[in-house]
Amino acid sequence: MDSALLGEVNFVNFPHLEASLARRTSDKTPRYNCIAWAAGDHRRKWWPNAGKEAFWPHSVAGNATTAAFVDAFRTKGYTECADGTLEPGHEKVALYVDGNAVRHAARQLVDGKWTSKLGDGPDIEHEILDVEGPLYGKATVFLKRETGAARSTSEKKRKRR
Amino acid sequence: MSESPALAYAHGQDDWSDEEAPKGGEQTAAEWVAPAWPEANEYIQTLFHELHMAWTSETACESNVRAIIGNTEYRQIIGLGPPVVPLIIRELVREPNHWHTALNAITRADPVPPEHAGDLDAIARDWARWARLQGIDY
Q: Which CATH class is domain A30-160?
């Protein structure tokens, strides 16, 4: 693990992280959280039913259930998929769930690794299992959408039809 | 029934009518001066900083915003009451964080428009502006 992460995280919450090859990729900041980061928004926090402390799409139910988070990512063009395997032309999001409560989200990078924002801490690049544990639960729900280039090609094809 | 002068003050009202103005002695609305915001003594300042450190440490990796503002130390900061408002404003100007809930609970004011939800920088600016209008020295 990147030594720059030492002191930032409590490894009791992340039993796989200490021995991993995860590396820190940003300074810590409270300005956005993992859900916002996975949704591509680094200007504000996302969370349901948190008043003015967090943004949540108006059309989506205000609870922390898996269904509500899936709906929130649908507003960004994502649909549910089977797993987190790398699919060229697609970007994926993993929802980490404990029971039926979503605890964390990570976004897949083009090389198949994942990027996460650790609460108010830094962004890290990691393998999908690295942040599983008692705080975030397990990566259980996966969503995908076409990447920017693939998306514009699909839109052109649809317009031609 | 209209709210008390102190509550209206907390809500940012500064244009008193004669009827709403405090009725102390011969004082008129034009003469009335908003009371200074209560200052935190050394004990409150120390307690605030200890609770603040504990709150940020305990919630450092927390994604759940409701858990962050429901944290025990955070609730204890709210319990310290009006004297911590200038300390919170100073802290949010230094580094924006989830201070809206605490400030709203203590002052009953809400200067944050709905479109700023989740934008901690914008929320910090909203509260700093509110504090300046109240004459709060932070």
A: alpha beta
